[in-house]
Flavin-containing monooxygenase (Clupea harengus), 435 residues
Amino acid sequence: MSRLRVAIIGAGGAGLCAARHVLSRPKIFAPPVVFEQTKSVGGTWVYKEQVNSYGNGMPIHSSMYRDLRTNIPKEVMSFPDFPFEKHLPSFVHHTEVRKYLEKYCDHFKMRNHIKFETTVDAVVPVRVENGWNRLAWDVTTSDGIDPSPSVESRFDAVMVCNGHFFDPYIPAIPGLDKFTGAVIHSHNYRSAEPYAGKSVVLLGAGLSGLDIAMELSQVNAKVVLSHGQKPLKGPLPPGVQQSPPVSKVLDDGTLEFQDGSHARPDVFLFCTGYNFTFPFLDKQVGLKVKEHLVSPLYKFLIPPAFPSLFVVGVCRAICPFPHFHIQTQFILSVLDGSFPLPSQEEMEKDIELDEAARRARGIATRHILKLDSEQWAYNDELARLAGFQPLPPYWSNLYESNKVFRSQDMLNYKTYNYKVLSQEEWTVQGPQGLS
Ligand code: FAD
């Protein structure tokens, strides 16, 4: 049998991980073709000072800001088979993550398989006689030069690794067009200095929202952190106060909050996350994005009617690199036949039951992909089904402990340093001597 040809869309963390595992099984898979629209590997970790567009009209992909340090310690942020360098602190600057991904790419000899400055424009399923599951994929690409020649190639399988943090989501707020100050999304935030001394209403208290609130406080901005969660308990940075979400903008440009209070800030900053977007995917695939749920995907990966298409990394509130490592190995077990997929009907039923069970537990549709602490059971399930090594026991425990420290000590948790002692044990040194 001829080797399977796999296309990988994107050379960020997910695409590189996919390529690394495909390359590790040369008897079954031909070297993959990785399509990357930019000149670099690393995806969102390739910081760009400019905002909006690269200059050739292509929108900036990265959502990094200048001073960002990771919010997950390197001990569990890394791919399990490729640790960060030992000398680095647990929470590294984004430039170190980019270097790490470059090294990962070179260590596993992926670079020659990446087609840079090549954008995937269309991915179309084709019914064939002799393909994997009688299915193949025509992938059309262009190089961004105008007029751009399109190139079409055929593959047995496609792994979609295009990232999910580049298309800003701004919630519909009645009257938003009446706001007369600056409106900005965190995708276009780079550094705090332009906000020095300004009043800012920052909507959203996720990881980026909190991080940016801290940066703004350091330049004496007056920040109202507007969010719909329970009030945050840990000490907030100086100059930052909490309020409920903004409900509307009045005719004179004043923001009204859900508790009836008002503000007229200089800046309205949205840290409200991103839209999923798969503009290249043919309609026949039937993948729907509704209320931040990408569906139908068996095990959050596979459209049941097209089981040689894999959408990697759509889950949220996860530990991304290890998650990609697990998902990719599962995918390869599907493709090499070591994990035979259930029938289309069974996969559809599984998705239906899984989504219904989550809703019955009070999880709103928009949060179904937010795995959070359930990610460990999910990872273990994929490893068990496909018969590969699960993550070592310390992984979940250390990651979850970091979450607790982060909520208790938002101002300092990135100064903690972790040390893994064995497969089960680890210690942490923080400013309060936690261990
Ligand atoms: P990306 O890194 O976005 O890569 C996708 C790639 O696909 C890009 O290179 C893009 O150019 C390419 N691409 C897209 N469309 C096409 C196309 N049509 N054709 C060709 N190429 C295409 N994770 C952590 O583990 N720790 C952290 O501390 C952390 N902090 C974060 C902070 C911010 C501000 C953000 C935005 C994310 C953070 N993350 C963090 C999550 C981060 O997104 C993941 O770690 C991971 O890098 C995502 O990898 P990816 O490959 O899925 O997507």
Observations:
- The pocket of flavin-adenine dinucleotide is lined by residues 9-15, 35-38, 43-45, 61, 63-64, 68, 70-72, 77, 119-120, 161-163, 165, 208, 280, 313, 320-321 (CB under 6 Å).
- Residues 75 and 135 are 40 Å apart (CA to CA).
